[in-house]
C-alpha cells in the first residue's frame, strides 16, 4: 500500500497495511463493515480476536470505549460489533467506517515505537519500554534517521528498563535483532515517504523470537 495522495489521516487498517507493506512486523488486521463480515474475518483468523471501532472521530479508541478484547465466539463478536457501532451514536457527527478485527496477540515485553518528522532534524525514530516505563518514567531513546544497526543497538542500551530486554526477573527477554531491524525499517520508511508526519506503534510486543506491533496510527502531511 502506498501513501494516499488525498488523505491526511489513515485509519487503523490502512495504517497497518502501509506499515506491513514496508516490511514492519504488524499484526494482521481487516476492516469489517458488517457483523457478518466481522465473523467471517474472525473465523479465518481463528478465535480469540480483538475488535476496534474505526472512525475519523475516534482516535483514542480505549478512551471512547471503542475496543473489545478476547472475543471467543461468533455471538460475542456480533454483540461487540453492535456495541462498537453504538459508540458513534454518542459522538455528534460521528461516522462509523466499520470495525477492525485482528487476532489476539500473545503477551510479551511491552514496547512503544514511533517516528516523527522534526522541522529541523527531519525524521526522528523513538523506542521505549511500554506501560509504566513510558507513561510515568518517560523511558525512551531517540535517533535521527537514517539508522544503522549500531545506532539502533545503542538506543536499546540507553533505556533504563533495558534489563527487561534480556529477561530480568524471570522474563524471557526480547529478540534484539528483530527489534533493531524494526527500528531501521521504520527509519527507512520515514526517509522514503516524506508525506508521513508521524507513526505511533503502541503497544509493540517483544518476544524471544520476534516483535509484533498490535496497534498503529499514521498521520500524513497535507
Give structural notes:
The protein is an alpha+beta fold and 222 residues long. It folds into two domains: 28-103, Dna Ligase, domain 1; 107-220, D-amino Acid Aminotransferase, Chain A, domain 1 (2-Layer Sandwich), CATH 3.30.470.20. It has helices spanning 12-21, 35-45, 74-89, 132-135, 149-158, 176-192, and strands at 9-10, 30-32, 49-54, 67-71, 98-103, 109-118, 122-129, 140-144, 196-207, 210-213, 216-220. The strands form two sheets. Strands 1, 6, 7, 8, 9, 10 and 11 form a seven-stranded antiparallel sheet that branches. A four-stranded antiparallel sheet has the order 2-5-3-4, covered by helices on one side. Strand 9 and strand 10 form a beta hairpin. Helix 2 (35-45) crosses helix 3 (74-89) and helix 5 (149-158) packs across helix 6.
What fold name stands as the CATH topology of the largest domain? D-amino Acid Aminotransferase, Chain A, domain 1
Instruction: Estimate percent helicity.
Output: 25-40%
Query: What structural category characterises the helix and strand content?
Result: alpha+beta
Q: What is the total tally of β strands?
A: 11
General shape: globular
Q: Main sheet?
A: 7 strands, antiparallel
Reading the helices and strands in chain order gives EHEHEEHEEEHEHHEEE
CATH level 1 name of the largest domain: Alpha Beta
Number of helices: 6
CATH homologous superfamily classification of the largest domain: ATP-grasp fold, B domain
Regions with little confidence, pLDDT below 50 for 5+ residues: none
What is the radius of gyration? 18 Å
How far apart, in Å, are the first and last alpha carbons?
18 Å
Overall average pLDDT:
92
CATH architecture of the largest domain: 2-Layer Sandwich
Strand content: 25-35%
Number of self-contained structural domains: 2
Amino acid at each position: 500500500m502506498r501513501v494516499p495522495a488525498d488523505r491526511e489521516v489513515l485509519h487503523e487498517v490502512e495504517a497497518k497495511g502501509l506499515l506491513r507493506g514496508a516490511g514492519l512486523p504488524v499484526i494482521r488486521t481487516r476492516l469489517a463493515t458488517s457483523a457478518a463480515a466481522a465473523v467471517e474475518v474472525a473465523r479465518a483468523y481463528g478465535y480469540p480476536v480483538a475488535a476496534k471501532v474505526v472512525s475519523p472521530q475516534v482516535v483514542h479508541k480505549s478512551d471512547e470505549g471503542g475496543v473489545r478484547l478476547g472475543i471467543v465466539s461468533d455471538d460475542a463478536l456480533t454483540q461487540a460489533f453492535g456495541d462498537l457501532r453504538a459508540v458513534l451514536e454518542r459522538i455528534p457527527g460521528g461516522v462509523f467506517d466499520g470495525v477492525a478485527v485482528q487476532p489476539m496477540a500473545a503477551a510479551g515485553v511491552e514496547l512503544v515505537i514511533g517516528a516523527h518528522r522534526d522541522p529541523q532534524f527531519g525524521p526522528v525514530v523513538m523506542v521505549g519500554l511500554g506501560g509504566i516505563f513510558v507513561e510515568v518514567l518517560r523511558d525512551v531513546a531517540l535517533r535521527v534517521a537514517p539508522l544503522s544497526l549500531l545506532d539502533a543497538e545503542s538506543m536499546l542500551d540507553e533505556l533504563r528498563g533495558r534489563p527487561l530486554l534480556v529477561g530480568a526477573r524471570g522474563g524471557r527477554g526480547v529478540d534484539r535483532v528483530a527489534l533493531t531491524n524494526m527500528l531501521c525499517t521504520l527509519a527507512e520508511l520515514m526517509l522514503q515517504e516524506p508525506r508521513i508526519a508521524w507513526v505511533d506503534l503502541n503497544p509493540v510486543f517483544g518476544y524471544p523470537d520476534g516483535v509484533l506491533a498490535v496497534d498503529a496510527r499514521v498521520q500524513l502531511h497535507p
